[in-house]
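Input record, target 12 of the design panel.
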């Protein structure tokens, strides 16, 4: 079931709300940025995400094909969410860092299914050979 969650960066400058069902699944990717910042993400449609505060505190980082906007707080450095465009996901989507959700119980995070993506090799439909480090 979809629940409304509050989320934020570490210092609280960036605050958002998201309508999310963690049981629909989360993902971890082995691409260079996801590995370095230890992203654990869940995607939602544009209408399921609302930035409440802190747009001016966000810095946008893009690399490679520059398709995804990796956002982070310029004050504390935390990556609370990013966004991109993908026709197979219905257009604009948000990738929310589930570790930045302020009101989720540890048990709910532990029960959330995780899919592993091989972003390092642009093989988005199959998992990487090794996932234990993600």
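The sequence produced for target 12 reads:
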């Amino acid at each position: 079931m979809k629940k409304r969650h509050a989320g934020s960066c570490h210092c609280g400058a960036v605050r958002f709300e998201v309508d999310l069902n963690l049981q629909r699944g989360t993902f971890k990717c082995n691409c260079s940025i996801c590995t370095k910042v230890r992203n654990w993400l869940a995607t939602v449609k544009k209408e399921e995400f609302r930035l409440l505060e802190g747009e001016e505190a966000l810095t946008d980082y893009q690399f490679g094909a520059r398709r995804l906007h990796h956002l982070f707080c310029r004050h504390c450095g935390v990556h609370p969410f990013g966004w991109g465009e993908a026709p197979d996901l219905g257009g604009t989507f948000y990738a929310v860092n589930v570790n930045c959700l302020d009101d989720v119980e540890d048990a709910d995070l532990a029960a959330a299914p995780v899919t592993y993506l091989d972003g390092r090799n642009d093989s988005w439909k199959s998992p990487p050979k090794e996932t234990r480090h993600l």
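Helices lie at 32-37, 106-111.
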